[in-house]
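Open question from group meeting: does this chain pack into something compact, or does most of it stay loose? Before anyone orders reagents, we agreed to write out a predicted structure and look at it together. Recording both the input and the output here so the notebook holds the full record.
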Amino acid sequence: MRENNPEVEAFLPLSAPVFHVMLALADEPRHGYAILKEVEERTHRKVQLSSGTLYAIMKRLLNDGVIEEIEDRRAQTDERRRSYRLTRLGRRVAEAEARRMEDLLRTAAEKRVIRKLHEGWERS
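Structure tokens returned:
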């Protein structure tokens, strides 16, 4: 059984756009435009965030301590370009949201709303 963490649970559930932004930062730091492109490519253009939506999300995540701005040597050619990454709290929030969604999918499979779950998933 999972241990409840009130600090993490307070963020859940995440909206789909927020979760997409966090997933874009899960594997490496990115700047705003790279986040937009990663979400668009990963979702095969089904999710296209506007720059206004992205920066509102980023501001909220920064204020909440879920992401942080970092110095990125790759971005030295443009001082306006800011790079971001998940904090430890942000990673825990993203993991908790993924588990929450996984539990929903299990229930959907049990209720025969979807046919089958991935073989590697284990019930916790």
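Observations to bring back to the group:
Helices lie at 6-9, 16-24, 32-42, 51-64, 88-110.
The first strand starts at residue 30 and ends at 31.
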